[in-house]
Design a protein that fits this description.
By secondary structure, the chain is α+β, with helices and mostly antiparallel strands. 28% of the residues are buried. It has helices at 35-41, 65-90, 168-198, 204-233, 247-270, 275-279; strands at residues 7-8, 14-15, 22-23, 26-27, 95-98, 108-114, 118-125, 143-149, 160-161, 164-165, 242-245. The protein has six helices and eleven strands.
């Protein structure tokens, strides 16, 4: 007794089993009737064998593995900028303020450092400071520290350190620019994730715009913060202070440059053809 089986082709249609005079669906003297279905099942469109079929982009061109690798590399560059931005924004070592070592007494001195969200004062031992250093510090030395969050965003009060008053408008503007740049980074990361998952090159253009503008806003936030520091120092000249930008500012500056470079890389990858091929076309042989 012959057992019959059904074969489904690539379009979901069922191929009829072999009729009378056939053995296993193979007609006498003719090709197998289910060969087309079996061939389609074993082709690249199925999951049983062959290479995985690449999805096509909106322009009709498939994203190659080389393009996907370049996008991932550019995304890694942008992620480095995002991490540096988060590190710089979340820390309070943007600027260090220090009077002379002998301003208070000969045993201890007071130093301060602050960022976008909070400021810290620290009492250091003069014996721990470099003898060649005239001012108190640096803030990384061990000592008693006291940190408080700024009240710019709650009650609108200015902070007072060393009898000098901060400029809340400039500080709030710098913080808002940093937050908006982080929002653009998140949007750019979402666009790149959609581009890699859906294999659509169109998402690279908005991602490049988001990362470039986020880098510009990060650098602009740094400039506004520096102006706020200068306004803070000019508010009162009773206590002479030595100020210097700290390592958080270095993170922000490097992050802004890296984000702009990452956005430019995404923009180059989104172009329909490589700029090198446009400037130096290959000579076609006759």
């Amino acid at each position: 007794m012959w057992s019959t089986f059904f074969v489904t082709d690539e379009e979901g249609r069922t191929v009829a089993p072999g009729g009378a005079g056939t053995v296993g669906g193979v007609a006498a003297g003719g090709p197998p009737q289910g060969a087309g279905g079996l061939t389609s099942l074993m082709s690249g469109r199925s999951t049983f064998g062959g290479n995985k079929r690449r999805r096509t982009t909106s322009t009709g061109h498939a994203m190659s593995e080389a393009q996907e690798g370049k996008i991932k590399l550019a995304f890694f560059v942008a992620i480095v900028g995002v991490v540096l931005t988060v590190l710089g924004v979340g820390t309070e070592f943007w600027v260090e303020l220090a009077p002379s070592k002998s301003f208070y007494n000969n045993q201890t001195c007071l130093t301060a450092h602050y960022g976008l969200w909070k400021g810290c004062t620290k009492t250091l031992w003069v014996a721990d400071i470099d003898p060649e250093r005239e001012s108190c510090g640096p803030a990384e030395l061990p000592g008693e520290s006291n940190c408080t969050y700024f009240k710019f965003f709650t009650t609108g009060e200015n902070a007072v350190m060393f009898q000098k008053t901060t400029q809340k408008n400039l500080n709030v503007a710098a913080a808002m620019l940093a937050l908006f740049s982080l929002f653009l980074m998140v949007m750019g990361a979402i666009c790149i994730t959609m581009s890699l998952s859906k294999e659509i090159l169109f998402f690279l253009k908005p991602a490049s715009i988001c990362f470039i503008f986020s880098g510009v806003l990060v650098l602009l936030s740094l400039l506004v913060f520096h102006q706020s520091v200068l306004a803070f120092l000019a508010s009162d000249h009773t206590v002479p202070l030595h100020h210097e930008l700290s390592w958080s500012v270095s993170c922000i500056g490097c992050a802004g440059a890296i984000l702009i470079v990452g956005g430019i890389l995404f923009l180059l990858l989104a172009l329909p053809c490589s700029p090198w091929q446009r400037c130096f076309p290959h000579n076609s042989s006759s």
